[in-house]
Fold:
Amino acid sequence: MQEQQAPGLWRTLREDLGVVVARDPSIRSRREALLHPALPALWTHRVAHRLHRRGRRLTARLLAYLARRATGVEIHPGAELGRRVFIDHGAAVVIGETAQVGDDVTIYHQVTLGAVGWWSDVKRPAGERRHPRVGDGVVLGTNATVLGPVTIADHAVIGAQALVHKDVPAHARVLAPTAVIRPVGDRPRLMEDLFAATASAGSW
Structure:
């Protein structure tokens, strides 16, 4: 995730294209992968981030704005994204300014890597991280929300609908409650509701 150890821009873009083919079963070739809805947002961010680091903030923000208009994916130019990050579908993904995303991370639609709120962030020292740090190989399920300067360690799985505001250890699974299915006319069962607290991590 460190800039000085990262490969060149063109190699990174080629890796991004290859990841779409590898992780999206609906894509059959690199040519088809060029039409993946989230790829333009990721590629635009790669360029915008480099501009942002060089102090060309307005140009970087303009690129991010155009990418959001075109794809529905909002990635702040200041966010650090590692290699082979895969954003599936892309719709309504939001990644904040000080977020750090590792290598080989999979992000499904409607994921938010956000801050706690301005009322808390304005009290932080200048330059302090406000957004999550996501380790290598992490999977972020649909509508997962991770808030604040927390750390999601390597190869953790954040399941669909999960809300995370604390650190998550490596290889852990954070799963939101599943829906309870009741036949028509069935009375509510308190214990069933209380123990319906594990979601399928693959329900994306």
